[in-house]
Amino acid sequence: MQFTKSIDAFKRAQQSIPGGVNSPVRAFKSVNLNPVFIQKAKGTVITDIDGNQYIDFLASWGPLIFGHAHEAILAAITEAAQKGTSYGAPTEYETVMAELIVEMVPSIEKVRMVNSGTEATMSAVRLARGFTKRDGLVKFAGNYHGHGDSFLIHAGSGAITLGLPDSPGVTLGTAHDTFTAEYNNLDSVRALFREKGKEIAAIIVEPVSGNMGVVPPTKEFLQGLRTITNEYGALLIFDEVITGFRLAKGGAQEYFDVMPDLTTLGKIIGGGLPVGAYGGRKDIMDMLAPIGPVYQAGTLSGNPLAMAAGIAMLKLINGTPDFYAELERKAAKLEAGMRNNLVSTGVKGVINRVGSMMTLFFTNENQVTSLAEAMKSDTKKYAEYFKMSLESGIYIAPSQFESLFVSYAHTDKDIDAILDTNLKALKQLH
Ligand SMILES: *Cc1c(COP(=O)(O)O)cnc(C)c1O
Asked: Measured between alpha carbons, how far is 205 from 104 in angstroms, rounded to an integer?
């Protein structure tokens, strides 16, 4: 494969954009490569500006669960655009979208649309603080909730540590209000609540962790978070920006049958356009302006193009009876194939999968259930694996600590292709 045009494009981009990208992971830094610049995509195939083609298993980091440029979504966007792109006034699109979400996501009684997952989580936490009149926030090491200040906090050496900012620019004051616990470790949560329970407004959690690689919750974990928050009068926020509409119509809360107070959504809900949402119990959501005191707003929130795309996406999901069964079938086939490849090549690894999200960790550990275990992965090996995959026409996340996404558009041939590449790469890694 030739990457000349992408190399030139990256040089040029770096002159006027910090690091040449508008989101850091796109720079391929952790795999030490020049990023490929995309020209177009359709279905499961991405074409870069050098004309190389890849079968896409990243799906724009999750949103494209029907593949790229789906006809129904394109038609909805086009139809909306012809009537104007933004009004800054209510439209019926927004109500239709809200009704669909309320119908699909079990714990959501009312919902507010925003423009990204980050905006959704920031707003949900403000609302939780306003509702409980408390400042503290519990998050989990290795969970990602967008780039809001409160979420950019490292875990300290122990579980019960005051947060330290993870990025310059996050103030100590903000960090002071974020407490970090360990994923899948209820004791670390209980310890925080014993000490700070009356200060804690909410726990925010990825019900399936997707941002330290895929790490499933234990059965007891999510249920335990529900019990602890109930006990202390704190709110439980499920960050379903990845899991929403991916694991089930009602997301992880339906999949695991644990109901949060607030839910944040993004990615799939925008049908490939920039959208986020947060919703939940009516009594909490009614704290929002203009009927309540908690302020949150957006010039482009509920944008007609974004709503049209999102509605088309949710209608596609609702109108495809075998949707989740097919995702599960394909993803299970992929998992089984990769497990065989690991065994036949003798490469050590752990595969974590929940529904259509999955990660192959290059590790000598027997399991990955927490950030600490995920961090033991061999990222150099992953970088080599990524390079071999890319050069064989398979597009996956340029980092060990991300998910692979199976979409409804993937064919059995696509799955066979990634399994072939996987086997070849594992043989060379051995
Ligand atoms: C991607 C992601 C976000 C942030 O969404 P953006 O649209 O990138 O701001 C928040 N939470 C989770 C779990 C995510 O995966």
From this structure: 20
pLDDT of residue 89 exceeding 50: yes
Q: Does residue 267 have an active-site annotation?
A: yes
What pTM was computed for the model? 0.97
**Bridge partner residues of 161 (DSSP):** 180
Closest C-alpha to ligand 1, atom 10? 145
Q: How confident is the model at residue 166 (pLDDT cuts 50, 70, 90)?
A: confident
144 and 263 both lie in a single domain: yes
Show the tokens assigned to 361. Answer: 């960790």
Domain with residue 414: its CATH number is 3.90.1150.10
Q: For the domain that residue 98 is a member of, what is the CATH number?
A: 3.40.640.10
**Which residues in 21-31 are b (16+ Cβ under 10 Å) and which e?**
beeeeebbebb
Domain boundary residue among 318, 336, 353?
318
Residue 177 has pLDDT above 50, yes or no: yes
Tell how far the Cα of 420 is from the centroid of ligand 1, in angstroms: 31
Question: How buried is residue 93: exposed, middle or buried, by Cβ count under 10 Å (0-12/13-18/19+)?
Answer: buried
Q: Between these two residues, 149 and 280, which has the higher pLDDT value? A: 280
Atom of ligand 1 nearest to the CA of 276: 7
Known catalytic residue: 144?
A: yes
* Domain span holding position 54: 4-69+323-429
